[in-house]
Amino acid sequence: MGSKKGGSQLAQLRTGLRDAGVTGSKPKKGQNEEGRVGQYRAQQRRKRLDALMGNLNAFDERVAKSKNDVLGRKVKGTTGRPGVTKSGAIQQRREQLLPEIAGRHRSSSFVDRRFGEYNPHMSVEDKMLQRFTHERQNRTGKTSLFDLNDDEDTGLTHYGRSLSGLEEMPDVYPDEDEDDQGNIDAHETEQGHFAGFDEPNDGTRNKAEVMKDIIAKSKLAKYERQKAKDQDDEMRMELDEELGDIRSLLFQRPQKEEGEEPEEPPKSTADEKSEAYDAFVREMAFERRAKPQDRLKSAEELAEEQAKRLREAEAARQRRMHGEEVVEEEDDEEGEEDDEAPAKRRLVEGSSGEKRSVRSAMGLGASLDAQFEPRFDMDDEEEEEDDEDDEEDDEDGEEDEEEDEDEDEDEEDDEEDDGLSKFERQHLRDTPAEDTAPGYGRSLPKRDEVPTLPFTFPCPTSHDAFLDILEEHQVQPSQLNTVISRIRTLHAPNLDEKNPERLQRFLGVLVDHLLYRASQGARGVHDNGSPSADFGVLNDLVLHIAELSKTYPARAAEHFVAKLAMMQRNLTRGLGRGPLELSSLTWPALPELCLLRTAGLVWPTSDRWHPVATPLSLLMAQYLAHARIRSLEDMASSLYLCTLLASNQRASKRLMPEALNALYSITAILLPSLKTSGTSPAKALAEEYGIPTPDVGAAHTAHLAVTEDATPSTPLRLATLLSGSHNDAQTRADLLHLALALQERLASLYQSSPGFVELFTPLAFLLEVGASRLRGSMPTLASLVSTTAAKLRAQLERAVENRRALRLQAHRALSIASYAPKFDQQAFDPKRATDPDTERAQTAKLRALLKKERKGAIRELRKDAQFLAEAREQARVEEDVSYKRKIDKITSGLQEERSEQKQLDRAKAVLKKRAGKK
Questions:
Q1: How many angstroms separate the CA atoms of 725 and 708, rounded?
Q2: pLDDT band at residue 628, thresholds of 50, 70 and 90?
Q3: Cα–Cα distance between 499 and 493 in angstroms, integer?
Q4: Alpha helices, DSSP H, located in 149-268
Q5: How do residues 746-799 score in pLDDT, each as one tens digit?
Q6: Are 311 and 456 in contact (CB under 8 A)?
Q7: Which residues fall within 8 angstroms of residue 904, CB to CB, at 6 or more apart?
Q8: Considering only CA atoms, which of 584, 578, 663 is closest in space to residue 624?
């Protein structure tokens, strides 16, 4: 091979070919050229060409230079030829990718249509026999329809029967003679085919008579076909009527004995369906025609209509109050609606004798009754029964509503419930609301003197403004729900952009009024000494607070957290004055307890962390942990806090040790037999299990122990206990019974806890000791205490049996640690994994491999897309060239024709000119 010289690549190629002996003068071929010598020379020539192509362009070959050359070592991949690789890839794509793209829309599949190929019930021998039979039939049959040498006659057919054998089918023309076979005779053909008009008419039939005969025969055939169809229908009807008997045979009903009489055949299904259909049609004939209804209205339109109705009702009330004449304009459609739906427009008697539509005027009066109604309950086990009772009461109310439209106030009194569960009604019953209800700063008038309630109210921005509205219109407690509903209806968020802010402020007003009503009820006292707390009004307030809190949760959380923070500051201030001072307000009163209960009803208490529920739980736990018991009122408040904690944690079952410690202290204080001159068993148990009991055995709680045997009264009045009006043995017995019930409830709540044994063992010991010492003097209380102790002891025994002690994890013996240094036998490679964790190293390796394969796949897809784009462009160019060639051919042909035409025209002109000269 020649040396590299200057010049272009073409000049270098020519020089290389001439030096290699490929071009130029060639030696003459001898006789031995075609033997081994010729093959050797061809091989050498191919090698020289390869070497020449490799040396032609230095950029066609890439060499990875190594730092250290080792003799005798050959490393793969040191040299590469990207041009050859690219051309090979393009050729591979041209052979594989292009056919796939060209046939991507084809959807064809091979279907084997041989006999028995897809029949799993046929054996191989049966398949072969069937195929052989079919092949022999094909061979013996006519091979071609147009083969004239075939002896088999081929003619026309009708319904699979040859027309040539009509003489053998007598049923084709049953009404004709055998000689005619239904064909038209020669005379009819002559007359019907427009022939023989010149012949005289010698009495033969004309064309009209012939056509009449043909029409008559056609009608006869049509009649016979219709008759056959009617016969088939009659046979089908008979089969339908006998379907019942066929079913009885199919179901194989047991035959009756010989002594029994056969039953009458059942009525056919068709007759039953026919009778049911006739009855349904008769009922529809007497029904009233349906009326067209208006389209469904949006929430904004409904709110606007409700507010408009309230404004119109208020305007009518003002006109009636001033003695003006009120004209009621109602069209016929409204009257019909009143007749059809009397429950929607329930009329009640007002103070002045007129009637007003409460459901239409109050707006949300009907819709708010059926929604969320939280109650001040304590127990969850009886909630389902209470819900069923409430539903029954609602249904009874609706029935009374349909029967009599003038009993609205009575129904409201019947529907009002104290809202207490069965457990709370047994222990914490409050005075009914209908005994005496306190006023809003003044004495309320009697029932007959109550003025008509307005339909529109302004949205108050403070609690004082709300009290002024109630005092101005002398609103009774039973009417408070109506007032709040009308305020919410008139200031719906959809009516004005400022209404959401007004309702958020009104939510704070309702919370303040809840505390106000509870405090008013705590101050008011009945004749028997019990407070007059109206829990029915409180339940109505909780209903509206819950709905507004659901609509505006952020603002509602701010209101509740502010109240809880104020209660915590009051507790800290009372503890600073002295926890044993009677003037220190360390325990929550009735208003605060109502607020705590409302917060537990409105907000979810099962969340691990909540902006309102978490501070609520912390505050109640702080009350139980730091406040000291000084009286029975403090003890009742502590028990109610324990009840709230148990109710709030019923879903999450989060441990609240403050409640268990408070129950232990209250039980130890109430049991009189545990107070001895020596060491108290309650104190000893508390020191052993680490229970803080500062009030057990103290001088300020000595007077709180049970002194007489008494049967616990059910239900217990919470407001009475908090008022301090009763301080007798019956109250102490009731508190002891409530404490025992709460212990059972907490035991059932925490029975799945790992620390159940350590939590309830001291309570069980305390109750067992107290029951043993109460048997002689107080048998009734001793029976209650012993029953609770037996239940706790049984649960503790089951917990001990199910408990499994902790064990060390079983593992193989650890090998002796090696202190020999670890040397890296291989050279340092940053790409090599050095993770000691085998699984993690394998995961990293797979991840790297996946990343590499993904990048490679993306690279190949990009190359495929580029190749397809080039192929499409090339196809487009070829199509354009072919189209241009075709257009050029057409254009040239037209041009030639035009040229010939012009030449012809010129020749004609010349000839004409010559002819004119002559």
A1: 19
A2: very high
A3: 5
A4: 186-192, 207-241, 243-251
A5: 999 999 999 999 999 999 999 998 888 888 788 888 899 999 999 999 999 999
A6: yes
A7: none
A8: 663
pLDDT mean across residues, the chain: 75
Confidence bin at 422 (pLDDT 50/70/90) = very low
The per-residue pLDDT for 62 is: 83
Comparing CA positions, the residue from 761, 777, 770 lying closest to residue 680 is 770
Cα separation of 727 and 705, whole Å? Answer: 11
Task: Give the CA radius of gyration of the chain.
Answer: 54
Could you tell me which of 732, 751, 583 has the C-alpha nearest to residue 667?
732
Residue whose pair of structure tokens reads 């796949």 in the numeric block: 857
626 burial via Cβ count (<10 Å: 0-12, 13-18, 19+): middle
> Residue length, the chain?
918
Q: For residue 635, how many other CB atoms are within 10 A of its CB? A: 27
Q: What is the reported pTM?
A: 0.48
List residues bridging with 63 in a β-sheet: 79
Q: Which residues contact 726 (CB under 8 A, 6 or more apart)?
A: 529, 720
Judged on CB neighbours under 10 Å (0-12, 13-18, 19+), 742 is: buried
CA distance 287 to 818: 99
The model's pLDDT over 447-491, given as tens digits with 9 standing for 90+, comes to 444 457 888 889 999 999 999 999 988 888 888 999 999 999 888
Name residues whose C-beta falls within 8 Å of residue 20's C-beta, 6 or more positions apart in sequence. Answer: 1, 2, 45, 48, 49, 52
Say if residue 831 is exposed, middle or buried (CB neighbours under 10 Å; 0-12, 13-18, 19+). Answer: exposed
Looking at residue 391, its pLDDT comes to 43
Residue range 799-809, pLDDT digits in tens: 999 988 887 77
Asked whether the beta carbons of 706 and 667 are under 8 A apart, the reply is no
Q: CA–CA separation, 769 vs 789, rounded Å?
A: 9
Q: What is the DSSP letter of 531?
A: B
SS3 1: coil
Torsion sign across C-alpha atoms 374, 376, 381, 384: negative
Q: Kindly state the DSSP code that residue 369 receives in the 8-state scheme.
A: T
CB contact at 8 A, 737 and 782:
no
Classify residue 39 by burial, with Cβ atoms within 10 Å: 0-12, 13-18, 19+: exposed
The string over 640-679, giving b where at least 16 C-beta atoms fall within 10 Å of a residue's C-beta and e elsewhere, is: bbbbbbbbbbbeeeeebebbbbbbbbbbbbbbbbbbeeee
